[in-house]
Amino acid sequence: MTTTVARGLSPVRQVLPNGAVALAQESPATPAVTINATLHTGSVAEPADLPGLAYFTSRVIDRGTERSTAEEIAEALDDRGVTLNMSTTRHTIGVTCSSLADDFGPMLDLVSDVTCRPVFPEDQIELRRAEIVTQLRQDQDNPAVRAVEAMFALLYGEEHPYGRPPKGTIASIERIDRRALVEFHRTHFVPRALVVSIVGAVGAEQALARAARAFGSWQGSSGSAAASSLEEVHSRLARAAGPPARQVSVTPMMSKSQADIAYGFVTIRRTDPSYYAWWVMNTILGQYGLGGRLGDNIRERQGMAYYAYSAFDPHVIPGPLMVRAGVDGANVSRTIAAIDQEITAFAAGGPTTEELEDTKRYLIGSLPRMLETNVGIASFLQTSERFGLGLDHDRRLPGLVSEVTLDATRAAAASLTPDHAAVAVAGPYQP
Amino acid sequence: MSPGDVLQSPSVRRATLDNGLKVVVQEIHTAPLASVWCWYRVGSKDEAPGLTGASHWVEHMNFKGTTNIPRERMKGIVERFGGTWNGYTWIDQTTYFETVSSVALDEMLFLEAERLASCTYEPAEVEAERTVIISELQGGENDPDQLLEIEVTAAAFRAHPYRHPTIGWRGDLETMTRDDLYGHYRRYYRPNNASLVIVGDVDTDEAIRLVERRFGALEAGPDPKRVRTAEPAQLGERRVKIEKEGTTAYLKSAWHAPAVVEADFVPMLVLDAILTGAKGLNIWCSFRGAAPQRKARLYRALVETGLASSVSGAMLPTEHPFVYGISATANEGVPLADVEGALAVEIDRVGQNGVTPEEVERAKRQLRARTVFENDSVTNIAHQLGYFQTVASIEVFASLGREIAGVTADQVADTARRRLTSSARTVGWFLPVKP
Hints:
The complex is a heterodimer of chains A (431) and B (435).
Chain A: E1 12-15, E2 21-26, E3 32-39, H1 53-60, H2 70-78, E4 85-88, E5 93-100, H3 104-116, H4 122-140, H5 143-156, H6 170-175, H7 178-188, E6 194-200, H8 204-215, H9 224-237, E7 247-252, E8 259-266, H10 275-286, H11 288-301, E9 305-312, E10 320-327, H12 332-349, H13 353-370, H14 374-386, H15 393-402, H16 406-414, E11 422-427
Helix pairs in contact in A: 1-7, 3-8, 10-11, 10-13, 10-16, 11-12, 12-16, 13-15
Chain B: E1 12-16, E2 22-27, E3 33-40, H1 54-61, H2 71-74, E4 84-89, E5 94-101, H3 105-117, H4 123-141, H5 144-156, H6 170-175, H7 178-188, E6 194-200, H8 204-215, E7 238-245, E8 250-256, H9 265-276, H10 297-303, E9 308-314, E10 323-330, H11 336-353, H12 357-373, H13 378-391, H14 394-406, H15 409-419, E11 425-433
Parallel strand pairs in B: 2-6, 7-11
Antiparallel strand pairs in B: 1-2, 3-5, 3-6, 4-5, 8-10, 8-11, 9-10
Helix pairs in contact in B: 1-7, 3-8, 9-12, 9-15, 10-11, 11-15, 13-14
C-alpha cells in the first residue's frame, strides 16, 4: 500500500519578477486549499517607541483595500465559510486561510489584496484599536501572559525588541495613528519579504501561475531601506546573550488561583549547525511523553502541576528556551527548585543513550503527522524557505535527526545553567 | 468526506463484537498513519453528588499503568512509533486516542484493551493525581470567562446533572477516594459501553481481526444506569453576577438547547451560524479557530459597533438537552448593560422579523465548508465517527448534511421564537473589580 506522504513532498518553487517567492504542493486528500502568505517582518521591525505597531497593522490590513471595502471582504469570506487567520510574531506577519478548492482563485486574489493593497480606513482603525486595548487589558489579568512577558524582559532586556510586549502597550496602541500604520506597511510589506505557500487540491503548476498573477505585478516600495534596517537589527540582536547572572521577577496577582512560572535561557539561531542537537535536547528535557524530564518530576512525581514543559524557539537571532509550569502559589519555590535540579542534572550528565535514541525515533516518526494536513505542509514550506533548508527538507530531516550524537546533545544541555536563567512568576505568590 | 457520505462510503465498516464492543473502521491511505480512538459512554452527567469530577479523574488515572504495562513502560509506548496521544472527558463521553505510524496499530489496540480492563489505580498515583487535577481546576479559575461559564451553566440547570462542571467541584476533588474512582472505572469501562474507532492507512479486515484478538475475550458488564432526569421548563430569567478582581467585563447568555437527536438541533445550528458564524461540529478541532462571522448578526451588532471585542456562540451536539450559549467580551469602558441590551435587541429582532433566505443560504455554505475543513486528518475524521457513535449514532452524523440542506428560514425563525425567550434565559455578568 503506498501513501502520498510516504513518498515525500514534491513542492515547486518560483521567484516572481518582483522578488516574492511562491511555493506550491498539490495534496488532493480533501477538496480544500490552504494559502499561507507570510511577510518577513514583525515586531522586531517596530520603532522602539511604538511597540504593537506590527500587530496593529496586521489587524487592519484585511479591513479594506484598494479594490474592496470592508463590507465586500466580509461578504467574500463569510459567503465561502472562510476565516482569515492573521498572525504576528517577532519575525513574521502571516495571513493564512483555508477554502474549498472551488473558491481558491477568489481567495488567493483576496489574500493578495489585503497583503499588498490595504487602505487602512479610519473607522476600522478605531474599532480594531478598541479591540486591541481590551485584549491588552485581558493580558494584564492573565498570569501566564504576565509571567512570559516578564521573562522575556529579563532575558533580553527591555531595550531589545524581544523584551517588549509583542502586542504593545495600551499607551503605544493609543498613540499609533493611520500614518504610522500606512508607513509600517509601506516600508515592511515589500515583495522581497513575501513568501506565499499554497497547498491542497490544486495542481502545483496551476497554483504557481495563479500566484504569479495575483502577486507578481505588485511593486510595493523598493524595500531596500527596510531590508537593510532589518538586517542591521538582526545583526545587532545576534549578540543577545541573556543575563550575566540569574534574574528573578515576581508579579503578585493575589486574587488568582494559580501561579505561572516562566524560566528561560537565550539559545541559538535556527541556522546554527547544532540546531538539531538542541531540538533533540529540548524534546528530552521538556516535551517527550508528558513534558519530558520536567513533566516527570513536577507533574508525575510531585503532582504539582497540570502542565510543566519546555519550548524552544530559535529564529534569525538566538531564540529562547523557556520552561513553563502552572502551580499553586504555595508550590512556587518547590517548583523552581525542581526546575533548577532537573536542569543542573541534565547539564552535567546530558541524556542517556536510551533517551537519545527514543527521542530521535519519535521526532523522525512524527514527520508524517506534521505533514498530514494542508495547513501543516504550508507552514513547513514557509520554514524551509525562510531558513534555506531546501525543497527536499522533509526527506533530509530524518537523516539530520539521525546524525545527532550523544556528545552534541550533551553539549547543548551543558549550555543551560540555572545561574544565568531568567525566572518570572506571576500569580498568588509573594516571595 | 462530508457527513452524508459516511454511510454510503465503502471504506467505512462497522462491526459489533460478541461482548458488545462497537467497532468502526475507515480506510484512508493519504498518510502512513492510523488514528485509534476508544470512546466510553460516561461523562460528568453520569456522576452522583459527592463524586463530581470522577469521570475526568478516572481518565487521568487511565494513563498511569495497567497490569501488563507497568507505570514506567507507559512513557514512550506511543512516541516510539512517532505518535501523539491524548484523551478528554466532557459531559457525555470520555475518550482516548493515539495517532501513530500505521505499523503500530496492534500495539495501540493492546494499549486500549489494557486501558479498558486492567488499570491498576495505585493509591500513591491517585494522590499524586489529586493535586494535578486541582492544579488543572485552578488554571481554569484564573480565567474569568471560564469562571463565568461554570456559574451560568450551574444556574441554568436545576435538576439535570449537566449543571456541574466536568472537572468537578473542588470539595469533591478533595474528598473522593481511590475506591470511589475505581468503582466508577469498573462500572463504565466495559466493552458493551465502549466504541473503538480506527481510521487511516489500515486494511479493514485485518484491523477487525486484530480488534477481535485484543478485545474479544474482555467480559461485558451490566448495562450502566443512565441519567433519566429531564430538566423542568425554566419559568423565569436567572441571573448570575460575579464581582471579582479583574480588568475586563464578560457577558454570557444561555438558553436551553435541543439534544442532537431533536428536530430543533439543525435549525439551531443554522441560527447560531446566522448570529455568530458557523463553527462546524467537531469540538476537537473546529472550536479552536475563529468562525467566519463578519456578516453574522451579533458580530455586527456588538463588535462592529465597538461595544465588544469579541462575540461567540456554542451550539454543540449533546446527548441530552444542554445549553446554547452566547459569550461576549465588553470593550474597555463599555457597560455590560449596553452589551446585554444590544444582544437582546438582536434576539428580539430574530423573533419578530425572522431571518432572510440569504442568511440561511450563507449559513449552509459555511457549515458545508467547515465540515470539509474539520475532516482534514485521520485524527479529526476518527473523532467525528466516535463522537457521534457515542452521543447519538453514526446515522445521525450521516443525516446532518441532508438536514442542514433542508432547513428553511421559517424553521429557523420558529425555533428562535420558541427557544430564545427572555424567561428561559440565564444571564451571567463578570464585573471586574479594581484591586
